[in-house]
Amino acid sequence: DDPDVDPETMSCIEGCYSSSQKVLFLHLRGMFDTHSLVKQYQHLKEEMNEKGYLSVWAELKHSYARALLFLFSISHVLIVNHPSPCLDISYIHLFRALDTVRLKLQPSVSEALSKITGVSSDWATNGRFCSPRVLWFFENCPPAFRRQIASKLGVDWKKEDLKKVGHDLEDQIYSILRKSRVITNVSTNSLFAIPPNKEYVFMLTEPDPTQDWIPYLVNSMVDLCRNPNLSMEQNHCSYGYESLSDPHRQTVEQRFQAFLQQHIDQAFSPNGFEDNTGRHAHLINPFETPPLGVLLEAANVLHRLMVSGTPPASLHSLLDTDVRFSEARCSKVLPLATATYQENLPANYTREYHLKKVSHALGVFGEYARGPLVESYIEQLQKECERHWKSGRQMCEVLSMTGNPCTKPLHKGDGGELPPHQLEASRMDLPIMEHCSGVRYISACDCGKRQGPREDPFSARAANCDFYQLLGAECGCKNLDRITFPVFQPSTQDYRAAQLFSGLTGSGGRKDNAHTSNKELGTQPCNTQGLSLAYVSVQSGGENSDMLLGESNAGPSHQRASATLLTESHQIVIQVSDTDEDSSKEKSLVRQPSTTEYLPGMLHTESP
């Protein structure tokens, strides 16, 4: 037996029909069963990482409650299985939520049942053929009545004592259900009924050895060693695991069958269940035992309506108390956090100041908000703060040449362009105005004679041209002689920065370095002076003269060197040339600016 639940409904209802008793037994398997929970663990783990524990737990309770609502609408008797001999108070909230949703769904259920052939008018009107009875099955009894513990303590109890404990537990259950208004004097008006004159609590005096048989086997062996005169039936011990549980299982099944059979027999009686109490005890409640075919057809219709169909929103709201508490708490704190953000705001402020205020508002919100809806309300708070900031309070934030931001509201620049972080299609209607940081400097004109205040510049032209032109016109130094430097204008698409220095060092590499730089700059070597230094023999020879001779024979470019200092002979040799040759060399000083390479680091408004 390897049962599995439906991944959509998170539940599975198993059925077994006893033809001899004419009874249909239904068994609900849900995510609260250990076996089903272990099989769906990986899926639930992924959901918990995505949604959180409380949200996943609420979904599990919701799916399980829908299956229970179906069973309460299609059953005569329901058995609640609980491990400990006490009533779980969480059942109270579950039962009240199911009863509320049952009443809200009653018109839809009545309409669906009225279309089925064989369904009586009372059944269709009430949405069920009777108010079911609920029986309680506790897998353990109080510790003093457990056989193993009692034998160790030397306590001898009788069946009458255990029955008295069961009756006390019944009174406790009835009192709790009655005070919480889960059950009333008229069973038809309640989700279920409690039999007034029959036992409805069944307790086991020993745990089932098939569930945890290793401790049971050890304890049985210890008891047998302590008292070897005990019979085999008293120890429930035999050879083999299967034979170990047979006597215990047979005894429990017989007791439970007798306990359940009395309620089944009363259901087949002419009057059915008579569970009204007080002054309404004489009222006859609607009660039917429909044929199996009609019952199955009605069960299919109700299952599609309550379990497989669209879930009722009211059930989810009633069961998910954590979400309701979180919603009430967060909705109360959200206006307080929003007011904290809007407190003492300037007319316009930067994104950094906006994020600082949002962080402060989130701190106030996180101090009081609780529950699974905190994350969604945090997103709502952030969106509200963002909307408030962008509704006319957003600062331009364009940085000036000195690093100061523009303090005006968000706008377009002089050319109609937006800053890179504000390129949004929805902001194309922004006004056009000049940037202003509110910072002013005192600068002098070109000659330094006159000083004047200048606005913090936001462009290279405003920083280096416009101000000096205006101040120069007032001073008069605008008319002074000026040297105009050539501006790099590329003639090709593959222009690049010039490489001014090479990696060569030393005296021997000085000439090659200059030659390499000229080659990289794309220019030919030319004369830079009218006079050039060359070799004139003054001494008879020697190493220095040979070296100079070698340099003079190297080529015309070396013969046109500027000067050669002879460190060892302390003599300067100068070659005197003709006048015509000097004038031609002076003309060659005029160089055209490069159109393929520009000087790195010397940028201007027209630099590429």
From TrEMBL:
One of the protein's GO biological processes: nuclear-transcribed mRNA catabolic process, nonsense-mediated decay
Domain of life: Eukaryota
PANTHER family reported in the protein's UniProt record: AMPLIFIED IN BREAST CANCER 2-RELATED, NONSENSE-MEDIATED MRNA DECAY FACTOR SMG8
UniProt keyword annotation of Flavoprotein present: no
Protein source organism: Homalodisca liturata
Residues covered by region (Disordered): 504-523, 577-608
Described purpose of this protein according to its UniProt entry: Involved in nonsense-mediated decay (NMD) of mRNAs containing premature stop codons.
Family of this protein: Belongs to the SMG8 family.
Keyword Chloroplast: no
Name recorded for this polypeptide: Nonsense-mediated mRNA decay factor SMG8
Sequence ranges of Basic and acidic residues compositional bias: 509-518
Lineage: Eukaryota, Metazoa, Ecdysozoa, Arthropoda, Hexapoda
Keywords: Nonsense-mediated mRNA decay
